[in-house]
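Why predict the complex rather than its parts? Because the way molecules touch one another can change local conformation, and only a joint prediction can capture that. The input here totals 652 residues.
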Amino acid sequence: MSKKIVIQPVTRLEGHAKVTILLDDAGNVSDTRVHIVELRGFEKFCIGRPVEELPRIVTSICGVCPWSHHLASAKACDVIFGVEPPPAARKLRELANAIAFTEEHILHFYFLAAPDFVMGPTADYSIRNVIGIAQTAPDLARKVIRGRHMGAKMLEILSGKSIHPVAAVPGGFSKALTPEERDRMLPMAEEVLELAKFSIAFAKKDIFPKYIDVVKTLGVIKTGFLGTVTKDGTLDLYDGVLRMMQADGTYEDFPYDRYTDYIAEHIEPWSYLKFPYMKKAGKLSMDLDNPVGVYRTNTLARMNVCDRIRTPLAQKEFEEFRSNFGRPVQLTLAYHWARLIELLYNAEYALELLKSPDITSKEIRVPVKPRAASAIGCVEAPRGTLIHDYETDAEGMVTNVNLIVGTTHNNAPINMSVRKAAQDNIKGGKYDQGLLNMVEMAIRAYDPCLSCSTHELDGRIPVKITLLNPRGEVVATVG
Amino acid sequence: MEPDYLPEYCSRPTLVLGCGNILLGDDGFGPEVIAYLQAHYPAPKDVALVDAGTGVVDILFDIALSDSKPQRLILVDTMESGQPPGTLSLLPLEQIQGKKLRTYSQHHIPTSNLLRELGELSGVEVSALVVEPEEVPQEIQPGLSPVVRQAVPKAGGLIAARFFGGYERPIAQ
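Output of the joint prediction:
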């Protein structure tokens, strides 16, 4: 009899998702669907509002990466008003972005991804969680939390608020950094850099070698990649051009305002979330053997599309990564490795920005006047390329809004990686908790923020698996 | 003296966390109560009022693993439990566990290991002040329903009376 396996929720993800695995009569995987719940109605809500309100409002979309939405929105407003923020304002925005990235990447690696590796992917769930990590490796947990505290504190000092930032404004930044504040932040930034250096060394020595077979096989698919680089191909998370790379490694660069020439959106009847794909491919096919138009974003994509990294330690790690795996890297679990290189880059870059002489300049904002305009504000968010596309009327009121968030770009590849992991790990109807966690690991690699505002964390019944017959009747539950 | 690097939510004996999304109707109750408290009841130095919005899990991760924890944690949130809309309940940890918000909510009270760790293993006194929502919309629609809005000052007064050292009425209206 055909069965349907439903995994809900996908634990430890920063959101709420449901995975459905359909088995054929032989008990093999015939199809999988990752249902992602999206926060709806935001675009409609924005219309008619003064555009300068959006950088403040968008931080309520997502409690996980509010800084990315905040900065993408502020950048779009700069373009709407036709202004260029002063150099120090740009540096303050980049500094906030770099610190927020370090916080996010530390959280993901140690609390969301590492339990799979530290405890082992088939370990019992009751120890394979954040508390398990704390009890197994208390000194490590202490070190990590100290780094997280420092990230949060630096954002508090820099912007007044770390959770719902309001500091970036159209035309610049609202609060100058004083020399005293800079001096308070410097030792914290130094310590976060030490944690970043420790993290990648720790992962390369104690984690990746042990699981290299899993890294080389789990959820591996063949796709293109999208990310931001400067005009000379250097990794940039705040500003630059978009680079779309094909699976064969060839690529094309284009400015933000041409994204609709390169990205189209496909709709599946079973999913609220759209499936962006490469427009020039003409269509989207998520066929594992012959995918068409699929691209990925987020850390691995950024490591693939860039030619170099501007800070020395991250550049060294980047060279080693590329020498080990080539270009482009298609291994899904290599997202974790790439994430640690980005952690190092952001920690180095934050320190570099803090040490730059004009970071305490008081020239941080230029005046703005409303006008009819359209604008694209784009940044790299921890979870991928984030696009804010606005239009305003002559009074500066919003007439149109379109957002594409990082996780949406990855909708098609997440579905493909899950199908690949399921096919490889569920055969002849045989599966257990460990195998199903492998499916979840494939999703976690992408670090999806599944509804841009949901949080689910329930350790008591972490995975609910329901077996349904073709008529939708429950025949068994596991979990 | 407390270390300079500790964020506000790990450095005070009492932490009040307003949880929820202000863009989703009654789900915004927690942040509204924090805003009300900030406007009407100056918090004593040993109390941190934090609008955690939808970022509460990140904060709880940090608190759970930190050597510096608050002595008591009060979550202010929305919870469906079948009571009339607007009903306030102050729940101890053992009554929070096992309950959660609507299945399709934009956030959940994290009832799991984190709160258990905080309450049972770390000795943090955990409680939740929850309101029964009238409506949490499926699409973005800011603003509390009238009945839940009426509960905001009541919730603020309750927290101030209980955790701020005995205010009997708001300082300003």
